[in-house]
Amino acid sequence: MQFGKDAIEAIWRRQCGAWERSDAACVQSFLVECLQHDLDPQDGLNWIIEHRTQLSDADAVVDAALRWVNEHTSTGSPVSGIGAEQQE
Fold first, then answer.
1. Per-residue pLDDT reduced to its tens digit, 17-33
2. Is the distance from CB of 15 to CB of 37 less than 8 angstroms?
C-alpha cells in the first residue's frame, strides 16, 4: 500500500508535532510508524529531507533518519522483501 504525502505528514504530526521540537527520537518513531503502515521508510526519509529547511536541527535529524533507514532496511533499499531471506 502506498501512502500519499498527506498520510506521511499525518504520521509526522502524530510522532513529532511541531517542526521546532523535532529530534532524533521523534524521527525514529516517525519511521517506525511509516513501516507499520507498509510505507517504505525511504519515502519517509525523502519526505524529511524535502522538509529539512523547517527543522531547527536539520543536520542531526536527517542524519538520525538516514542511520535508522540504513539499519532497518536492506542497505537503505526500499522495503520489498529485499534481504528478507537473510533475516531468517
1. 888 778 889 999 999 99
2. no
Helical H segments across 17-81, by residue range: 24-36, 41-50, 58-72
Q: Does residue 15 form part of some domain?
A: yes
CB 34 within 8 A of CB 8: yes
Q: What is the mean pLDDT of the chain?
A: 81
Q: Looking at the domain assignment, is residue 30 inside a domain?
A: yes
User: Cβ neighbours of residue 38 under 8 Å, at least 6 residues apart?
Assistant: 1
Percent of the chain with pLDDT over 70: 80
